[in-house]
Design a protein that fits this description.
Length: 683
C-alpha cells in the first residue's frame, strides 16, 4: 500500500465512512497518517471499582454481571449495565445507543473508560468507551491517542484505521528537512516520527516524534513568513516621509505621550522615512494609547500628501474613531470621511467620489472600505485597528487598494513576543507596555448569583454618585439554556424591578447601525445610567464616566474577552470595578476568575489564557489565512519555537528562496503548502 493511495483502500472504509473522512479533509493514506492526535489519555493504569471517585475519568476492567437493560425516557434511550470486579459493582450508562443492549454480553470481561458521575447517591460511569479485555489493545493498557473527529466516527474505530495504515503501508515518508538541520537539532527521521506520534514504542519515542513534527510545522510557517517579510522589505516605497514634524498633532492631543508611545511613534516614522515599505504591528494593553499613536502617524502621512485608511472591525468603533479623530484633524485642516454600512445613498456616493479624487485625506470605516467600488487616488498608509478581528486576507484586500502602501496594524490583545513572531512574522513589532498617567487600577471580584441584592444596591449607589454601569450578557434573547442571561429579557427585568428608577438601555449586534450609535451616544453623554449589552462593546468603546463592568455568566467568556471587557471601565477619574457573576465551579472557570482578580496586566492575562485554552483559538476567532496547527502548541512549545526561529533565520540568510540543491525538497514542500491554488498565507 502506498501513501498516495485513496483512503478507502483500507478494508474497514466503505462509502459512508469514506465520506465522513473526506469531511475531515482525509482522502489519502498519507493524509490519514498525518491526521495527528490532539491529545492523549494514560490508560496504562486501571482502577478498582471501590477506588472510584466522582467527577474523574477512569479505566476499569470489569465483568458484565447482568443482562443490560434498555429504557426510554421521553425521547432519550438509556442502556444500563451492571459491571463489577472483585471489589464491587457500578452501573455503566449509555445514552441514545440502543444497539448496546444486545451487543454487550453478560459474563464477558471488558475494559471500560469513562467519567464517573453521581446519581441517586450512587456513582455511575457515563458513556464509557469499551472493548473486550485482552492483553494487547489499541485502546487500553497504554498511552492512547485522542483525535478531533466528526461525530459519526468513534475514537476506537479511528485508532483502528490508523493502525491498519501503519501496518500495511510499505512506502516511507520522504524527508524534506535539510540534513544539516536534522543533524544540528538532533531531529528523528520523519517516517519514525509519523508512526510514533500515534502509537509510540515508548515515552522516549513519543517525545522524539513530537519534537520533530512540531519543529517542522513551525519551521514551514516561520519560513513562509520570513520569505514574505523579505520580499516586502526589499521593496521601495512610493510614499516616503520627508517632513516628520508631528508637534502640531501632539499639541492638539492635549496630553504628553508616555515613553512607550514616543518610542513606537519614532519606530513607525523611521520606517516611513527610510524609503522602504513599513509593515509594523503595534500591540499594547487596553487603554495604553494606541489610537493616539496611530493619529500622530496618520497626521504625518497626510501632511506628506498621502491618503490614509483606518479600518475598524465594527460600526460602533469606526464611528467612535470618526468622532474623535474628526474633531482632532478638523483643527489641523485635514479632511476626514466615514465609510460604513450605515452610510448609504447619495452620502455614500459622495464619499466614494471624495476618496477617488483625493479631496479626503483620512478615511475611517469598516469592511466597507475594501469593497470593489472604493478607489483611492493616493493611498499611502493603511491602519487596521483590533487586528485580531481581521484576517490576513482582509488586510491584503486593503493593502491592494494602493501601490505598496505603508501598513500599520494594531491589537489590544497583548501576546507573548514569541507567539507574535509566529502570528505576525511578516511584521516588525512595537510594544506599548505602559499605561498613560491617571489610568485607574480596576478592582475585580468573582461572585455567585446569591450576591444579586448587594450588586443591585451597589449599582444604584454608584449611579447616585454620578457613575455609570455596563452589564454584559452572553446571548441576545432567551434560548434553550435557561440559566443564561439575555440582553433583551434581562434588560427589561432590570428596568422594571431591580434597577427601576434608573435609565436602563439595551444594546446588541442585531440592531441597525444607526440605532446602536444612538444608544451609545446616549450612554456616552450620561443620559443612560446602565447599558445592558452583548460583547459588541468589547472593543474600543470609551466612556470615562463608566465605573462598573458587571459580566453575567462570566464562565461563558474566554480570559482575553473578560480582560477586554474590563478595559471599558477605569478610563476616567472614578474608582472602577469589574464583577464576574457565575455559579459554575468547574476548574477552568475558577482559574480564569483567579487570574482576573489577581492582575490587571494584559500580558499576564494573555499568558494564562493561552495556558488554559491553548493558542489555536487564542484570538477568539481564528486568523483567516493562517493554517491551523496540526500538532504544535505555542504555549507548550516555546523552546522549540526559539530553535526554529534560529534555524530558519540562519537558513534564509544563506538561501532565502531555497534555490540550493540541499533545500530543494523543502522548497517543494513549501510549494505544496502555499501554492497559488491554495494560498494559505498572503499579503
Amino acid at each position: 500500500m502506498k501513501l498516495s493511495d485513496r483512503v478507502d483502500i483500507l478494508s474497514n472504509i466503505g462509502p459512508a465512512r469514506k465520506k465522513t473522512l473526506e469531511e475531515m479533509s482525509v482522502t489519502t493514506v498519507k493524509e490519514l497518517l498525518e491526521y495527528f492526535p490532539r491529545d492523549y489519555e494514560d490508560r496504562s493504569l486501571t482502577t478498582k471499582i471501590n477506588e472510584l471517585e466522582e467527577g474523574e475519568k477512569y479505566t476499569v476492567i470489569a465483568k458484565i454481571q447482568a443482562k443490560p437493560k434498555l429504557a426510554r425516557v421521553n425521547s432519550l434511550v438509556i442502556v444500563t449495565a451492571v459491571i463489577g470486579d472483585n471489589t464491587g459493582a457500578i452501573n455503566a450508562v449509555w445514552f441514545n445507543q440502543s444497539y448496546l443492549a444486545s451487543s454487550l454480553k453478560q459474563g464477558e470481561v471488558y475494559a471500560f473508560t469513562g467519567k464517573t458521575t453521581e446519581r441517586y447517591n450512587r456513582l455511575q460511569l457515563d458513556n464509557p468507551e469499551f472493548e473486550i479485555y485482552s492483553s494487547y489493545s489499541l485502546n487500553i493498557g497504554r498511552i492512547v491517542p485522542i483525535y478531533s473527529l466528526a461525530k459519526k466516527l468513534s475514537q476506537k474505530i479511528f485508532r483502528g484505521l490508523i493502525n491498519d495504515a501503519i501496518t500495511n503501508t510499505k512506502q516511507e515518508f520522504e524527508e524534506f528537512l535539510p540534513k544539516k538541520i536534522l543533524d544540528e537539532y538532533r531531529l528523528c527521521p520523519r517516517n519514525f516520527a509519523v508512526k510514533n506520534i500515534h502509537f509510540p514504542e515508548d515515552k522516549d519515542a513519543f517525545f522524539k516524534a513530537r519534537r520533530r513534527l512540531v519543529f517542522e510545522e513551525l519551521m514551514l510557517l516561520q519560513l513562509r513568513l520570513i520569505q514574505l517579510k523579505g520580499d516586502i522589505t526589499e521593496q521601495r516605497s512610493k510614499f516616503k516621509l520627508d517632513d516628520v514634524d508631528c508637534s502640531p498633532v501632539c499639541k492638539a492631543l492635549g496630553f504628553t505621550l508616555t515613553d512607550a508611545q514616543k518610542k513606537t511613534v519614532d519606530e513607525a516614522l523611521n520606517d516611513m522615512s527610510s524609503g522602504k515599505v513599513m509593515n509594523r504591528l503595534i500591540q499594547g494593553d487596553v487603554g495604553s494609547g494606541k489610537t493616539a499613536v496611530a493619529a500622530i502617524i496618520a497626521y504625518c502621512a497626510a501632511k506628506n500628501g498621502m491618503q490614509v485608511a483606518i479600518m475598524a472591525p465594527t460600526d460602533v468603533l469606526a464611528n467612535q474613531h470618526f468622532n474623535n479623530l474628526g474633531k482632532l484633524f478638523g483643527k489641523l485642516g485635514i479632511n476626514v470621511a466615514l465609510l460604513t454600512s450605515s452610510v448609504k445613498g447619495q452620502a455614500r456616493k459622495s464619499v466614494y467620489s471624495d476618496i477617488e479624487n483625493g479631496s479626503v485625506s483620512l478615511v475611517i470605516g469598516t469592511h466597507a472600505i475594501i469593497q470593489e467600488s472604493v478607489h483611492f487616488k493616493k493611498l499611502g498608509l493603511v491602519i487596521t485597528d483590533e487586528q485580531h478581528r481581521f484576517g490576513v486576507k482582509q488586510r491584503e484586500s486593503l493593502f491592494l487598494k494602493g501601490e505598496r502602501p505603508h501598513t500599520l496594524v494594531m491589537t489590544a490583545t497583548p501576546i507573548p513576543r514569541t507567539l507574535a513572531l509566529v502570528l505576525y512574522g511578516d511584521l516588525d513589532i512595537s510594544v506599548i507596555d505602559s499605561l498613560p498617567p491617571g489610568r485607574q487600577s480596576i478592582d475585580t471580584f468573582a461572585v455567585g448569583t446569591d450576591y444579586y441584592p448587594r450588586l443591585y444596591d451597589f449599582i444604584k449607589k454608584q449611579v447616585a454618585q454620578g457613575g455609570q454601569c455596563y452589564i454584559i450578557c452572553p446571548v441576545i434573547e432567551d434560548g434553550n439554556l435557561k440559566e443564561l442571561k439575555s440582553v433583551v429579557s434581562y434588560g427589561e427585568e432590570l428596568s422594571q424591578s431591580h434597577l427601576s428608577g434608573l435609565n436602563v438601555a439595551v444594546l446588541h449586534g442585531k440592531m441597525k447601525a444607526e440605532q446602536k450609535q444612538e444608544i451609545l451616544e446616549s450612554f456616552a453623554c450620561g443620559k443612560t445610567d446602565v447599558l445592558v449589552s452583548t460583547t459588541v462593546i468589547e472593543v474600543g468603546i470609551d466612556v470615562p464616566n463608566a465605573c462598573i463592568m458587571l459580566i453575567e455568566n462570566a464562565d461563558r467568556f474566554g480570559l482575553s474577552a473578560l480582560h477586554q471587557l474590563r478595559g471599558r471601565v477605569g478610563r476616567g477619574k472614578r474608582k472602577s470595578y469589574c464583577i464576574l457573576v457565575s455559579d459554575k465551579k468547574n476548574k477552568v472557570a475558577k482559574q480564569r476568575f483567579n487570574a482576573m482578580c489577581k492582575s490587571n496586566d494584559g500580558f499576564y492575562i494573555s499568558e494564562k489564557d493561552m495556558e488554559l485554552r491553548g493558542p489555536g483559538d487564542f484570538f477568539g476567532t481564528r486568523q483567516h489565512g493562517l493554517p491551523d496547527f496540526k500538532i504544535a502548541n505555542l504555549y507548550r512549545d516555546t523552546e522549540i519555537l526559539k530553535q526554529v526561529q534560529q534555524a530558519t533565520l540562519a537558513l534564509c540568510k544563506k538561501d532565502l528562496h531555497l534555490e540550493n540543491s540541499e533545500n530543494r525538497a523543502l522548497k517543494e514542500k513549501m510549494s505544496e503548502l502555499y501554492s497559488k491554488e491554495n494560498k494559505d498565507i498572503c499579503l
